[in-house]
Structures are given as structure tokens and as C-alpha cells.
Amino acid sequence: MIVHTPLRSWSLAADAARAEYVRGGAFQRNLNRFGHALFEQMAQTAVCSRQHRLDDRLCRWLLLALDRLEGPDIPMTQAAIAQVLGIRRPSVSECAERLEREGLVERGRGRLRVPDRAALEARACACYGAIRAQYQAPARAPGSPDAPA
Q1: 63, 121 contact by CB (below 8 A)
Q2: 37 - beta bridge partners?
Q3: H/E element holding 21?
Q4: What's the gap between Cα 131 and its chain centre?
Q5: Do the Cβ atoms of 137 and 72 come closer than 8 Å?
Q6: How far apart are CA 32 and CA 47, in angstroms?
Q7: Is 133 helix (H, G, I), strand (E, B) or coil?
Q8: Per-residue model confidence as pLDDT tens for the chain (149 residues)
Q9: Using the 8-state DSSP alphabet, how is residue 72 labeled?
Q10: Most exposed residue of 50, 103, 108, 116, measured as fewest CB within 10 angstroms of its CB?
Q11: Residue 106: which H helix or E strand, with range?
Q12: If we measure between CA atoms, which residue out of 112, 105, 104, 109 comes closest to residue 84?
């Protein structure tokens, strides 16, 4: 796993995680829910990459990054962002420059700042909302008709 930004994290030994998962309960439900949301995010990202312009995709990615960070700063280089998005670094620079002219981002050495999140959300493609909804969906009881398969 590659970690691009400093975050708080927890660790759990694999044996302990496996035993807790087998017991069922909240740990199992939350892990299944997260796995489902992550799968949906990957699928939505694949569709987004084929259908939307780079500017819109970068907005989506910036918003997803902000969801996991505290504050408006994303401490990543444009080269790292290019790697995550699977595009060339100059493409990220050009796109970030356009977004900066629109007042949606401020570029700095090794970071991007989003001064107005609402404006960035308005500019992003609908894929961001679809992905975010998956992570915010309430947990459903296993076996219920609306539970993820």
C-alpha cells in the first residue's frame, strides 16, 4: 500500500481481525460495508475515467482526498497526483492551472489548497456524489432486501 498523505491510522493483527470478523457483529458489518463502498468507488472511477474530462476527474479526486484530510490542504505533489490518476504530470499541472484561474485551487510547492469546497463540488462531475453516497450509506442488516449483495 502506498500512503501519500499523513493520516491517523490503526492496525490490527490479521489473526485478531479474522477472529473478530468470524464472530460477526459490528466489525463484520462495517468491514463488509467498507469493502462494498470501495468496490463501488473503483467501478465509478473506471466509468469516470472513460466519460469525463480531466478537469472534472481532478475535482472529484481532490474532493475525495479532502474527505479524508483535515482542512483545505492536500499535501501532495502534482507528480504524485498524476501517478494516482494514471496520467502525465504536465496534464495535472495544466489542469490545476485552469482550476487555479477559476479560483477553485491554490497551488503551492508540494500541496494544493481548496479555498472554497462548495465551489469545487459544483465544478466536479456527478461521480463524486455517487462515490460519497456509498461511504455515507447507512449500514443495513445482513439479509435485508436492501443490503448489498
Answers
A1: yes
A2: none
A3: helix 14-23
A4: 8
A5: no
A6: 23
A7: helix
A8: 455 566 667 788 999 999 999 999 899 998 898 888 888 888 888 888 788 889 999 999 999 989 888 889 999 889 999 988 889 999 999 999 999 999 999 998 888 999 999 999 999 988 888 888 887 876 555 555 455 44
A9: S
A10: 50
A11: strand 106-108
A12: 112
Give the position of cell 470501495.
Answer: 38
Q: Which of 21, 18, 15, 40 is nearest to 130 (CA)?
A: 40
pTM, 2 dp: 0.76
Grid coordinates belonging to 142: 445482513
Amino acid present at 53? R
Would you call 125 helix, strand, or coil by DSSP?
coil
> Strand, helix or coil at 112?
strand
Which residues are within 8 A (CB) of 81 and not within 5 positions of it... i.e. 6 or more apart? Answer: 58, 61, 92, 112
